[in-house]
ATP-grasp domain-containing protein (Sulfitobacter alexandrii), 1398 residues
Amino acid sequence: MVARDFPDLSRLLSPRSVAILGASERPRSVGSDTLLNLAEHSDFDGQIFPVNPGRERVHGLRAYSAMSALPGPVDVAVVCLPADAVVGALRDCAAAGTGFAVVFTSGFGETGDEGRAVEAEMAEIARQSGMRIYGPNSPGLSNINRRLGLTFSPVFKNDTLGGGIGLVTQGGGLGRAFIQASERGIGVGLWCSTGNEADLTMADVVYHMVGDPDIKVIALLAEGFRDGPRFLAAARAAARAGKPVVAMKVGKSDYGVAATRSHTAALAGSAAVTSALFRQHGIVEVEDLDELIDTVALFERVGIAPRRGICVYSFSGGTAALAADMVGSAGLILSELAPGTRAGLRALAPSYAAVDNPVDLTTQVFTQDKLNRDCLSLVARDPATDVVLLPIPADYGPITDRSADDMVALAPDSPALLLPVWMSGHRAAGYATLNAAGLAPFRSLGKAVTALKRLIWRGDWSPSGTSTLALPAFPPGELDEAAAKAVLADLGLTVPEGRVVTSARQAGEAARGIGFPVVLKALVPGLLHKTEAGAVAVGLMDEQALAAAWGAMMTSLSAQGHRLERALVERMEQGPGVEVMAGLHRDPVFGPVVSFGLGGVMVEALSDVTHRAAPFGRDEALAMIDEIRGRALLGPLRGRPGADLGALADLLVILAALGARGDIAEMDLNPVRAGPAGATVLDAVILRAPTEIEGKARQ
Amino acid sequence: MVARDFPDLSRLLSPRSVAILGASERPRSVGSDTLLNLAEHSDFDGQIFPVNPGRERVHGLRAYSAMSALPGPVDVAVVCLPADAVVGALRDCAAAGTGFAVVFTSGFGETGDEGRAVEAEMAEIARQSGMRIYGPNSPGLSNINRRLGLTFSPVFKNDTLGGGIGLVTQGGGLGRAFIQASERGIGVGLWCSTGNEADLTMADVVYHMVGDPDIKVIALLAEGFRDGPRFLAAARAAARAGKPVVAMKVGKSDYGVAATRSHTAALAGSAAVTSALFRQHGIVEVEDLDELIDTVALFERVGIAPRRGICVYSFSGGTAALAADMVGSAGLILSELAPGTRAGLRALAPSYAAVDNPVDLTTQVFTQDKLNRDCLSLVARDPATDVVLLPIPADYGPITDRSADDMVALAPDSPALLLPVWMSGHRAAGYATLNAAGLAPFRSLGKAVTALKRLIWRGDWSPSGTSTLALPAFPPGELDEAAAKAVLADLGLTVPEGRVVTSARQAGEAARGIGFPVVLKALVPGLLHKTEAGAVAVGLMDEQALAAAWGAMMTSLSAQGHRLERALVERMEQGPGVEVMAGLHRDPVFGPVVSFGLGGVMVEALSDVTHRAAPFGRDEALAMIDEIRGRALLGPLRGRPGADLGALADLLVILAALGARGDIAEMDLNPVRAGPAGATVLDAVILRAPTEIEGKARQ
């Protein structure tokens, strides 16, 4: 995906001329508030064209009867009209050569099929005219760094801080909550709320922010992705630019999926797939709004940098212990303070202070002027310490105020990142001091540690390469298990030695050739749950058992209206191994996605499966294998040799390449026996993608 | 455990006479601040006896040269002396007939073995004299409901709110943070910080609070349990009294364990065992200080009541969707609004409002006076709705202030619990309104849902009964696998049919009697890792295979210096089944604990194990089985019949009864084959508890 796939949004975000359709003077109306926000509460010095057929002037500005009456094309037309007037207005805007239309109006895709059809019409207007549409059902956008808003929000005038955070949302309320972190010195520079995304999507806005030099970190509050692959392309662009993306995704439960659908018509997609693809693309995922704000603020302050060595520094022993405990529980590392640091602390600090990490200097450290500052300065310069975590459990008045002053004094030149946590609900002077100095403290110790864990994760993350494989084409026709396994063997994967037979006699011959024990599997077109249907017999030790199994299978199948005409006789795989699964499907949001997890009954019982967007390379495949919860089962374990992870990775890379090729709708290899000397596919289902002609025929 | 095991703490918590050893006028000294807190900042109207051999008067009060100089015994002596003077002072206090001694001084158990020995001396003074000791290394206690503090905290004078929360901590800083939630109207009535617990422990304080009618909920911030079984007894008393206990436990990671040890000398114990025992005893566990505060405040407001039907009500669609999503992700239930509720909302609310749950009325609901209040009132009276979750994403000025007013107006008579969440950092008038009205809003949506989940969990929890089983005594001598299995069979458990043999010939005879396939296991004293040592052969199909296995085992064992003199020949268990494990050990903190989880290699690979304090009954055993992550593997699954859970539960109840009996040090049944028709113990290790004589002989 290259830049030309993404539109240049500069005319939208920094327009020189704006028409407001439905401009009005009615108090608290969208048409009035939007105009006032632009005319009175912003630094906008371009032209404003109120469009209202019933008025000469609106809020003192000359009004126009229609878009066609304007002196020339405008950069942006803001549509503040009732739902039934929107499409007509968009056609007028397009005809007038408008660059971008912003549609606030709701009542489209979020209301059902009819509304979705109207949005399709909007998209078609955009496609044909080249005018891009932002919305509908959008609360607009605020380019706070330029003090310019295309929004009806009555509190826009309060948005004055600005900063390096680019915020992308679909709705308004949660974004507004983020904006209000300005009180803590956390400044959003550009906020775009894309609504129902009939045309422009979050992907377009993210891509713009990647190229915006004022934006240092991108915060995403997503209900769903209108165009998953383009979003991933924007995420890859962010990764290439070294710009962190922190995302919160609504729609992890059925309730959330249904609610987002009725809010911004968003298709939520699978939460597990989304999370895995975020990881694949270096997107830092958070779970709540407060986490989004704090984590984004941290990235704005620090950028992308691995900072692994954490020193906990407090004047409360219990708090220091709790913080250390949380660092450990999160799998993070307490730095081992250098002997010089410890000796320095020991020389300075009260005798009963703890000068190992976690450092607990007790409140006595504040009985002497500058003592706390000197001690903190030592820790901040400790060679093994990248981050000093500074939990302040409670407001102790002068003590905690002084503690905050010390942090502010040392922070600018501190080699280690100073990370304060203000745990008390008391917002004392010290709290304000930290916020004013750009050290906006965390308010929850656990969330501070979680944010730090995410910072470290992103610092360690790097994009992995993609393999390109030349894979053989598939033969025509439906692929039953035998054909599917032949295809897999062609691809270089290992399947059990086996033969297709049409009678018990042939089965016996085949088994003798292969060697007992064998497995017998009926090949019956359209039969899905083979095991439940009695169409699989395993562990057949000799010809007698095989013949008996054939007979039983005939009886069982005929009782279900099937006939046993073809079957697969396979070598029974034995020896050490763990059952895993590997799959490929076309995700409705993100396109081709490869899955990997524990196999057999464990897939359903433990849901221990991870995902990646295809294609990807071997490193990514190994990362997939490493991230399942049951990774340890792949060994080595209790003296048992480990599974051949390289062979598993190769298998996943082949699936990924197939996914990118596009001729497979779904592929389910389950179980795959992961043994010490390779991975053997024991069962396989392959469904082709419908070709274009077939696809049309089905409609 | 009965009440007489717990001391009456009323003289400690509401003393009529207090001696202060080390009373002083030196500014900011412990001896001065403690005296001033008692004399000037509290409602204490009893007698204060400063004890200081060097002074006539301290802060205007007559001072005494020693405890022996006092006119009579005092309820409490507060020890503000250097560490080396403490034990002598305690002896003096005891000799003077003091009821309770409070020791602030630190520098004991938290510093190492020597300090721990001094604490043992203190405990002995308490035991011999009957004077109970609180501390050392304690910041004291604050009986805020009585405006009385035995503490040197310079901010004690600010602790004026009081309330129904009993707070138990070991250190000071984190408790202080909790106290400062008073700003939000969250009132701690009694705060005890027990320090190193040389004598009195958290269990004593918890038990007192159970009986204190002013305390409605007990908040526990524990670093470790000095006396686990007594703590559990206090928790059982709280459950009987219907008083909720909410606990946060530090020490989940190695860092935390080490840090708490050096802070209050606490033995942290296993986090997994602690959490499981909390669940068993109805203790609500939280993960962070802010969660502790919010969850405790919720219980104080609501008490223990199952409130399952949740309605999300917001004026922001994205926020409503996020809240609904979180409710679903937490496994909680959105109430299905009654037709009357929906029709009522539809009639009142703006046309594009969402009147299904989640309810999103949009900010338009505030354009008419009383409209929001009328709508909220409808939802609050909906028959299926127990809780209305009210997320307020941002400060919208008058809108959100009015929203808060509406909640406050409706809350007193609302059948449903109104649960506001103030997500913005802006602390607007509405935020203050909610706090002042006792509706202290959550500040994090996710944490609100988590707290609600815990409220519902506790509402559903009930104590389970305990089984008493008459179990046969064990035979004398060491129990090898064969003897252990004989013991288990005696207890009524199922073990594979098997015979002990001493030669290959006997093995063959035994196998013929049992029927092939068989398992051969060497019985070698002191050999632990049998599989790795080649001392186990499974799946032996015939005599030839058995003889070969015997030969190979002889060779393998003799290469390791062992001899194959005895072995166990067992029927090879086949058919469907899942490997689980069951165990019994004596936990260093809590005593006999039974464990259950997935077995075989899965124990190590997935750590999917849960625990219970012994003894317990069948309901608790079934709850254990239900709470492992891999529960679904026990089926039914994919048409495979489920495991016989009743048999597993019986097995666990037998282990629990054995644990209570006390003659087993450790018992490890792993794997146990859980099949559809019973549970078969495939391998067993039983270690006896050392008898008292043996135990002493080992020392």
User: Anything to note?
Assistant: The mean pLDDT of chain A is 92.
